[in-house]
Amino acid sequence: MAMALRVRRLKEAYRLLPLLSAGNMYNLLGKDDILLPPLLNCSKNLRADINTMCLYRCHQDHRYSTISEAVSEPLVQLDFPSFIKSTIDEPEGPSHCWFNGTPDKKSLKDGIFLVLIAGFLDGSSITEANFASMLEKVKFLQDRYPFLQIIGFQDTKIPLCSSDICTHLLRRTLKEYIAFPILVANKNVIEIASEACYILFNGSESSSTYYGKEADIVILDKAIKDFRAQESETPKIMHNLTSTWVKPTDDFKEPPLCFPLRNLLLYFPGGISVDESGNRLFLSDSNHHRVIVLDGNGKILDSIGSSPGHEDGEFESAKLRRPAASFYHAAEDCLYLVDSENHAIRRADMGRRVVDTFYPKSKSNKDSSIWSWILGKLWPRNDLAAQSEELNPDALLFPWHILESPNGDLLIFNRSCETLWIMDLASGLIREVIKGFSNILEICEPLILEKSMLLNQIPNDWLQQQVDAHCSSKKIPYVHFISSVVTFQDQILICDTVGQTVLKLNRNSSSLSSFQFSNLGILGFPYWSSSPLERVCAADAALAENSIDHIESFNLLPGKIDIQLKVDIPEYVDLIEPLGESCIWRQTRGAATEISKADSTITSSEKVGIAQQWYDEIDHLAFSTSEIEATIEEATMSCGEEIPEGKVEISCSVNSSPGTSEVIISAALYLRLKKDSDGRSDSRQRKADRIADLLNPGTMVSRDVILQFLLASKRDLEEIIITRPVHVRLKFECPNHPKADNSKDIILTDTSLNVNVALK
What we know:
Blueprint: H1 2-20, E1 29-30, H2 44-60, E2 71-72, H3 80-89, E3 96-98, E4 112-117, H4 128-144, E5 148-155, H5 163-176, E6 182-185, E7 197-202, E8 208-212, H6 217-229, E9 269-275, E10 280-285, E11 290-295, E12 300-304, E13 313-314, E14 323-329, E15 334-339, E16 344-349, E17 354-359, H7 370-378, E18 399-404, E19 410-414, E20 419-423, E21 430-435, H8 437-455, H9 460-466, E22 485-488, E23 491-496, E24 501-506, E25 512-514, H10 533-538, E26 550-555, E27 559-568, E28 573-575, E29 584-594, H11 610-623, E30 647-673, H12 684-695, H13 703-712, E31 722-734, E32 749-758
Parallel strand pairs: 4-5, 5-6, 26-31, 27-32
Antiparallel strand pairs: 1-2, 3-6, 4-7, 7-8, 9-10, 10-11, 11-12, 13-17, 14-15, 15-16, 16-17, 18-19, 19-20, 20-21, 22-23, 23-24, 24-25, 27-30, 28-30, 29-30, 30-31
Helix pairs in contact: 1-2, 5-13, 12-13
Protein name: NHL repeat-containing protein 2
Pfam family, one: NHL
Keywords: Repeat
């Protein structure tokens, strides 16, 4: 009877196969990810028989793809493009919402989309290691193919407005630096697999291709090339596919959801290392793309990195992309940095203050002409040599941790510690690649245990707050913290990626406290608060991302204009340090030029001849630098004059000519909530509200999400340091120069302006 029932089930499955496999576009899934329509009401045994029969037919029919043993043919084709189009037309509905923006509507006609269906929330069936691996592949392809539209998809049964979803997705975006939109749906509007997978489709067609979570990056890369080859025209912006980091800096995408949190002093501290003899700490401020050098007392000594990108040079001009772990080599006085999203190892010479690329090696015949230097500034590109046109699965992709082995090699791990690259420190070449956490432990278990043993002294409740549900499933718990914890003198320092700070544990008293920072002005004006010159000149809305605190127009006679900005600071915050010149950014546009300190001489109100004025202008052009690189006049008050409490003053001098001009002044104020001095304490909710106001969240993120993030951090909110940007625009309308009595000479005028600005 049982045998007859099984034969009947196999016959029923065989009849279903032509319906399930119809079509010319065959889909690929992982060998354990065969999809069946949920509407197909059949038993588990029948589903197993169908899977068996399908796999058998895949081997018998040569029409099916056999790209890899890790993938097999799926059984159903979903209409995912139609679903995406419907959600873009209605970004928020009763059963779905876009968490951090929507895809480009124009690209839906002929763009190529890659959808990552994975567990962005806790409680999903995918493990943390698998999720990290899938995310790395997607982010790599996003950088490799700028035309590719990436979408994340999360299915959940929790109400969409739940604060748990928002808080977790915000933390996930901070941790992984997700720069693509995530679609959250709590209704089964599409027939989709319960397991994680990739969906690749073309907006102009209804066909889709599906890949299981085990599909490697080579398969996905080939599929994208095949999709692109089907199009009639080659994209105008198509980067060299032989390299992974030849992308212009301007194309670098940052998570739009989290841009208010960039105004925190630290934005995901990803790693820390020490120089015991030199009393120095090296803190990777990962999402700010810089490494902060400080001493044991928290005084900031230097900063490595200026903005996201890949560029060697001095500390002020070098560019990194999410630096993570670091290793200080005392004999060389060099700091080896893991440049995670550049897939490189960088070396910072602490004596010469120069950053170079240690791995991969640069081209041997580098053009050092002045023309190449100019092109490099106008179109920043990495000059690293390409390995091959085909991707190498063993290439250094998204490294995160770094340790030194007893024999002097560098041991480099990815974040999930599933891949180990062993690099020779002398030659800078990778000697061996090992995959699998168990295989890695056979080589470097003592080194990992030495690091993880430090975590046993950290309060367990704090550690639990730092991790997601699936992070501690390995043999060694909290293994992903090996680059975030270090010993320094009699203290243990650990990076707090939830509270966005560094904690120190006194090994004698077992007291846990926040690390205090000082000398903040050395960090200078943050790159994300200013707009490039060409963007400012191109459109009036160029600074729309950074809200304008004050706009004012003036009608003045042409000549020298001395501007004094007086910024009122909210009464509930303190200015931690005086505003330094490095934290001020000025720009003029139109019929105005900025006056540097060398040119800021006292001018006479007497008549000036036109010929003399022409010679003066020639001298000014010959002995002054360009407008962008000009030395800015010191923003200091006159001797004996004191700045009132609760105010900040900024000075600026410009020369205006007849016509319309504009002066843009920006500053970075380092603020902190005032300590309660009268014994009365505001509620934690009230403090979070005030910090959210200072962070100035825009329309791209809900204020409630920021509040939930602050309240969930369990950090003393009065210790949070905020970089509050100030943006002021002053517009001038100047008539022609007034003429002297002889109607030949012109008269120069001097004007002084006092502008009061109140922070919102």
